[in-house]
Fold this sequence. Notes:
Blueprint: H1 2-36, H2 41-77, H3 81-109, H4 113-117, H5 122-132, H6 134-149, H7 153-205
Amino acid sequence: MKKMDSLMKKQLELSFPSAVEYIIITLISMVDTFAISSLGSTVISAVGAMTSIINFLNLVTKSVQVSNNVLMAREIGKNNIEKIKITTGTAVFLATIFQIICILITIIFSGFLPQIFKVDRICLTYLYIRLIGTIPAAIGTILSGHERTIGKSKETMNIRTLSLILNIVLGNKIRLWCCRSSVGYSYYWNYKYDNDNVSIKNNSNI
């Protein structure tokens, strides 16, 4: 019974910080939506469409993280500390390379995304801003997986909490400013385009 209680305590010590960490990750996405919701339904739909692209990039990183955790667990069983560091370093390198490839592909085909998702071109502004943070996020994901595997879940929870605070204080202000600028720019060109069409029609009638 004591052994079972001890195991349950260890499980909770590892799982609770991880659960809080994933809640914080979800909150970061929710904060983005809440902040941008003030700009209207057009922007919300554009942001929602681009979130699926970002989620795909995160999925690529997660696959590397899972494989790294498995390999780490093997080396922990062998008590090979040096190999654990090399394994995580290799995972960070692979995740970075995969993210660079995905970012380049996304940028190359980004011009087609508004037509594919049937949203305003303001989606590209949000996408480009989010792409800036995908490589640091990938590295953070691999390292947080490393810390959890060696039993240091609390440290990753604290880092995620700090990232949530920074995202609320700084990240959303930057995204809001960029999106507002894009909205104004988009409205200006739509207005100019409509006026030019009206003047062309008037001249043709004369």
